[in-house]
Specification:
Helix content of chain A: 40-55%
Number of strands of chain B: 3
Helix content of chain B: 25-40%
Oligomer: heterodimer
CATH class of the largest domain in chain A: Alpha Beta
CATH architecture of the largest domain in chain A: 3-Layer(aba) Sandwich
Mean pLDDT of chain B: 88
Structural class of chain A: alpha/beta
Number of helices of chain B: 4
Low-confidence stretches of chain B: none
CATH superfamily of the largest domain in chain A: Type I PLP-dependent aspartate aminotransferase-like (Major domain)
Protein name (chain B): Iron-sulfur cluster assembly scaffold protein
Mean pLDDT of chain A: 94
Structural class of chain B: alpha+beta
Number of domains of chain A: 2
Pfam families (chain B): NifU_N
Largest interface: A-B, 24 and 24 residues
Shape of chain A: globular
GO molecular function (chain B): iron ion binding; iron-sulfur cluster binding
CATH architecture of chain B: Alpha-Beta Complex
Strand order of the largest sheet of chain A: 4-10-9-8-7-5-6
Low-confidence stretches of chain A: 1-11
GO biological process, one term (chain B): iron-sulfur cluster assembly
Largest sheet of chain A: 7 strands, mixed
Catalytic activity (chain A): (sulfur carrier)-H + L-cysteine = (sulfur carrier)-SH + L-alanine
Order of helices and strands of chain B: HEEEHHH
Chain lengths: 416, 153
Amino acid sequence: MSAILEKGPVHQFDSAAIRQQFPILAQKVHDRPLVFLDSAASAQKPNAVIDCMADTMRTQYANIHRGLHWMSERTTEAYEGVRDQVAAFLNAPSREEIVFTRNSTEAINLVAYSFGALLKPGQAVVISEMEHHANLVPWQMLRDRAGIELRIAPITDEGDLDLDALQDILSDGQVALVAITHMSNVLGSVTPARQIADMAHAAGAQVLFDGSQFVVHRKTDVQALGADFYTFTGHKLYGPTGIGILWARKALLDAMPPFMGGGDMISTVTFERSTWAHVPHKFEAGTPAIIEAIGLGAAISWVEKVGMEAITAHEAALTSYALTRLADVPGLKVIGAPKDRGGVISFTMDDVHPHDIATLLDRNGVAVRAGHHCAEPLMRRLGLTATARASFGIYTVQEEIDVLADTLVRIRNFFV
Amino acid sequence: MTMPVDSGALYDRLIVERARKPLFAGRLENPEKIGEGKNPLCGDKTRVELQLDQDHISLVRHHTRGCAICLAAADLMAERITGLNIAQAEGVGRQFSAMLVEKDGQPATSATAGTPALEQLEAFAPLRAHRARIRCAELPWVALKEALSHVDV
């Protein structure tokens, strides 16, 4: 265990010690040090997560909830222990409200299917113009299946949710659910969740927040937010792929029919009929991603040891530094100017195509994302086909922002 | 003075110049054949318009919205296939695709008898090392294929 973890929470951020815990950061790309600015797509993994998953497979693994033997019982304890950890991480009132899914996409699909089954034709679901396809396509599918209406809340040119317009959209009382990102993966906008929740509740609607980006950067408290549903994914939180979380109020989970059928989600089964297990197991059919769930637990422990406040402060400083440096790159335009921005910056540079930017950055060791970022309707709203995006994580340092900005200047000289 | 950016030989000077100042961009007044290619991953689009003189391609124009690789590929394709007959143009296209998937260290694809050489299109060879970008260079050829798909040879 490295020094930083032994000392407990750090308030002075020791970037060198943090970076040492991510072995991949020592890799070279095209003979240059890796500058990884694509954490919003998926974050790298610290040794704590890598070791925990490997140790699980080496020393303590069996299927869960069904074995009568020692190995199964220990593995069940580890897996169920993560449910407690996630509940605490989100400040959920109860561990039974934590449902393990494959990712945030699956969590939202679960809500669209199971909560969607409770809706009646004519009722509406509201999303925003800046949703990831994960919080858009499942609602279109529900609309086409169940005859509900899908309404789109606009954003301002700065990239903030237009709250006045949302108020209008809610005014006829037909809205059953407002499903909005808690932080945009393209614009970095952090949405005023508490305010949105209050507006939704006043109109008789439930509210879902897609927290995939948010939980990585800020302390999340589902009770303080007034949320009814909250989703996030493990792999952006320095955990493994294949594990995500749905949190929902227990009364909602109890009322919702199961999403998928199979083993582990039943109470009794005969050829004539089956009855369902209690929540959350009603929503967890089949052998789950056991090792990945345990890996997510390790990731949450690790993040909490570093301290979410320290992470938030570090990333806020980096983002502000990056905005200053990028402002000096000729021809570069940062997309959006939200009131509250997390560590995500999308940009364009004159006529240089974002894919050319990304390829040339990559040649110089810098990994960014380019494209529509799974948010095509938002791109259309912004009048763009694609952007390049730099995103920051716990291990990002100022020197990497310098490499980004300097390389962008040279790329522009190359093309213009 | 900053040092030039490392482009890994991918962005040959010819590619950058053609992307900036294409020689075959535009539209034909009365195109005989039209084909379109679209890459849903990045939104790149190209439209290829042809005029034929019997089975010879006499005039080519492209209308391309895309990255430098896609733009230059469309322009250099237009230049290369002008004057060829349809079978020859299709042969060049096959050879171009084969070049892009060749493994490093393998001998260059030998042209089948009667197929004209790639010539300037060889500038795209370094794309082999950037698999994600090969589609950008192939998009104009997809459009060409569509344009030619209704031609009886």
